[in-house]
Amino acid sequence: MRKHCTMSELLAVRDGEGSAWARAHLEECPFCQQEMDMLYGRVAALRALPAHRPPRDRWAAIKAQADPTNLFHRNQNVPPAPVADERA
Ligand SMILES: [Zn+2]
């Protein structure tokens, strides 16, 4: 016998797609109503986070620091990784 809505069921109800059982249960169950309120609170808190976007004017500084001769030969002095011995 089922007791409470799962998080998936709560999300479906929030999106207007919940099962009849989940919608009916949510209307009468304080525990699931509290879970739904917390879900809305979390979504609101996540939406309130500041947007982080990379600065768009960094390429000139990066290009000035990059040594094009190192980009293609960076790993030449690193010995090759040992090959696993298939006989072992
Ligand atoms: Zn419940």
Task: Please provide a written account of the structure.
The chain has helices at 7-14, 20-28, 30-48, 59-65, 68-73. The chain has 88 residues and is mainly α. The protein has a domain at 7-48. Helix 1 (7-14) packs across helix 3 (30-48). The two termini are 54 Å apart. The site of zinc ion has 6 residues, from helix 3.
Q: Which sheet architecture does the biggest sheet show?
A: none
Q: What compounds sit in this structure? A: zinc ion
**Low-confidence blocks of residues:** none
Report the end-to-end length measured between terminal Cα atoms: 54 Å
> What characteristic shape results from the CA principal axes?
elongated
Q: What is the helix content?
A: 55-70%
SS content category:
mainly alpha
Label this structure with key terms.
88 residues, mainly alpha, 56% helix, binds zinc ion
Which SSEs are present, and which pair or pack?
Elements: H1 7-14, H2 20-28, H3 30-48, H4 59-65, H5 68-73
The structure holds zinc ion.
Short description:
With 88 residues, this protein is an all-alpha fold. It contains five helices and no strands.
